[in-house]
Amino acid sequence: MTGQIGSIVAVAAVLAAIAAALVAVLRLRARRGIATAMQRATYDVLHTASLAAEPLRAGLSPATASKAVRHLRVLVGAVGLAIVDGERCLAYDGRGAHHEDELIIAARKAVQNERSVVLNGADLPCDRVDCVVRGAVITPLTGPDGAAQAALVAVDDDQPAPGLVQATLETARWAGSQLALAELDSSRERLARAEVRALRAQISPHFIYNALTAIASFVRTDPERARELILEFAEFTRYSFRAHGEFTTLAEELRSIDRYLTIERARFGDRLQVRLQIAPEVLPVGLPFLCLQPLVENAVRHGLSRKPGVGMVSIEARDAGAECHITVEDDGVGMDPSLFGTPSPDTEDGQHVGLVNVDERLRSVFGDHHGLVVETGPGAGTKVSMRVPKFHPQVRA
Q1: What is the pLDDT of residues 146-201, one digit of tens each?
Q2: Is the pLDDT of residue 335 over 50?
Q3: Which has the minimum average pLDDT: 1-10, 234-243, 255-264?
Q4: Distances in whole angstroms, Cα of residue 230 to Cα of each of 14, 178, 251, 263
Q5: Residues paired with 312 in a beta bridge
Q6: What's the rounded Cα separation, in Å, for the pair 23 and 26?
Q7: How does the average pLDDT of the chain come out, rounded?
Q8: What are the residues whose beta carbons fall under 8 Å from the beta carbon of 255, sequence distance 6 or more?
């Protein structure tokens, strides 16, 4: 009898231990998950908003609107939702699409007047038995300049309640901010392209004249060298005026710089000395097109050409973990540090404009903490440094 009681107690103890372990596991899982309904709802809203933000940040088009509209409908909580650019329906999700023509007309007025509109059943008559549309809320989507460029149309199966109106207004305001960011990104890309074109125009007149003059000096005395210089000049200009890609690799930029220095050494002879220290592992690093060459040209053109005797240009690129550190240094005449960053129309021959241009392009791509660092002084030479991330989502060399 005593043995049976002991067995029962042992089984009970085991069951109690299993129950305690199960309770502990459930509590641990509850802790790891979203514990409350409010937290779960917050997560759902933020996740849906992030899904809608990605296509909107690419600008407003039928393709991006079709990707964003279904997520926007979830945020608004409408039966149907459309994005109308004032002339046509870019995308529609949900029920009520057969009212598209009427909604486009109403959206056009809302965009022109830049005012929200609430429609009721009388404004959307329909003879279809299965039609659920009883009203709609139309809110303009404003661009970065504050002007309406499209409209968000939320369709309801009842007279639009204040909650739906407010949800549509707030969603349209948020979507408009994403479109404004898209326009900002596009403007920055256009600015970068314009700066590259300006940089090409700035380099070409001065260098081309000097290069052709140097080549001409060898045509009679050393035809073979003149031929080699012409080929180097052709390759240099081909790279500088290439029509594809806003980014390049450090290796390609250095190849173009080598051609540039070959032609400049034909001009200056032994007066121009060059020292290179390049770590092989950083050669594939991507960087904005023509962001290193202007630094070398500035060193030769404004640093060494005005210095009597021999001058040295040093180019160094080293591995620094997640970054590549690049420096271009000369022992030329230097410059007043206060001039850097403040180019003016009377600046001689566009001096220092190239440095400012490169600084702005680096900051626009990699962020403000990746601009140029310039160390200089009158008679002390110039050292220009940059930090380039080895991997960056915007850079496709």
Answers
A1: 677 789 999 998 888 898 999 999 998 988 888 888 877 777 777 776 677 666 66
A2: yes
A3: 1-10
A4: 91, 51, 22, 9
A5: 273
A6: 5
A7: 82
A8: 239
Q: Single out the residue of 370, 276, 388, 384 nearest to residue 321, CA to CA.
A: 388
Nearest Cα to Cα of residue 181 among 62, 75, 54? 54
Residue in 160, 91, 86 with CA at minimum distance from that of residue 123: 160
Task: Find out whether 266 and 175 touch, Cβ atoms under 8 Å.
Answer: no
Other Cβ atoms closer than 10 A to 343:
16
The answer to whether 198 and 357 are in contact (CB under 8 A) is: yes
Copy the structure tokens of residue 246: 């806003």
- E-state strands within the chain: 80-84, 89-94, 117-120, 135-142, 148-156, 247-249, 272-278, 286-288, 311-320, 323-330, 373-376, 382-389
Distance of CA 202 to the CA centre of its chain: 25
Residue 305 CB partners (closer than 8 Å, separation 6+): 268, 332
What are the two backbone dihedrals, phi and then psi, of residue 149, each rounded to the nearest 5 degrees?
A: -120, -10
* Angstrom distance (rounded) from CA 258 to CA 373: 23
The pLDDT, as a whole number, for residue 38 is 84
Q: How many of the other CB atoms lie within 10 Å of CB of 298?
A: 22
Which of 69-73, 199-203, 294-298 comes out lowest in average pLDDT?
Answer: 199-203
Give the residue among 343, 270, 362 at the shortest CA–CA distance from 302: 343
Kindly report which listed range (3-17, 59-73, 196-210) carries the lowest average pLDDT score.
3-17
> Cα angle vertex 268, ends 267, 269, to 5°?
100
Residue 253 clears pLDDT 80, i.e. is over it: yes
Rounded-to-integer distance, Cα 89 and Cα 133, Å: 17
Residues 264-282 pLDDT 10s: 988 888 888 999 999 999 9
How many CB atoms within 10 Å of residue 263?
19
Q: What is the radius of gyration, based on Cα positions, of the chain?
A: 33
Could you tell me the two tokens for 339?
């001039």
- Contact assessment for residue 86 and residue 150, using Cβ atoms and an 8 Å cutoff: yes
Work out the angle between the directed axes of helices 162-216 and 353-366 (0-180°, nearest 10): 140
272-278 and 311-320 beta bridge pairing: parallel
Unique residue bearing structure tokens 């600084």: 359
Residue whose tokens read 């459309």 = 82
Instruction: Say if residue 333's pLDDT is above 90.
Output: no
Task: Please name which of 292, 297, 298, 263 lies closest in space to residue 278, comparing C-alpha atoms.
Answer: 292
